[in-house]
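Field guide to reading this record: the first block holds the primary sequence, the second block holds the structure written as discrete tokens, and the final block holds curator observations. Each block starts with its own label. This record concerns 16S rRNA (Guanine(966)-N(2))-methyltransferase RsmD, catalogued under organism Sinomonas cellulolyticus.

BLOCK 1 — SEQUENCE
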Amino acid sequence: MSRIIAGICGGTPLASVPGSGTRPTTDRVKEALFSRLEALGMLSRARVLDLYAGSGALGVEAVSRGASTAELVEADAKAVGVCQRNARTVNDAVGRRAVTVHRGKVGSFLDSTIEGRHWDLVFMDPPYPLGEEQLSRVLEALAPHLAGDALVVVERSARSPEPAWPRGLTHYADRKYGETRLWFAEPEVSEADGSVAS
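BLOCK 2 — STRUCTURE
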């Protein structure tokens, strides 16, 4: 059974998505990821976006560990129901509506996002069959909505190539955990004036 690992909701069981339409992040990978994020100081009061959220496990873990808000974006109806249940669990524990759920395709969500709206930490765990070109388009749509010191975490198969980072994003690091590789990217800074490229 999946659970929230640490923070105010640490140990709380999470509802899981039935069937095989999603690929949950393993507890081993999740623990390594969040240890790294805490070491980088990325969680405290962060505005989090969890794309292809599945059960919402990454977004709710972030709020449990001190993130200000988390928005979960998922298209599958069963997965959305699970996200909503997990969001209610965390919202009840923290005493506020910290986690919200959006049902819809990731591309449509980003296309409709208000200009000037920014996130500090973004999780992307797309299904492995998602093509590299489509992934790059989603990253391109995301780039203008990142805070200047934001971090993007893309989870892919260890056999998948490095994502094609669009203008506005640059590769920061990557880590391999068994069959999973996490790619970390950050906003690209213009060498001319030190501003974030868009």
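BLOCK 3 — OBSERVATIONS
The CA atoms of residues 16 and 55 lie 6 Å apart.
The chain has a mean pLDDT of 92.
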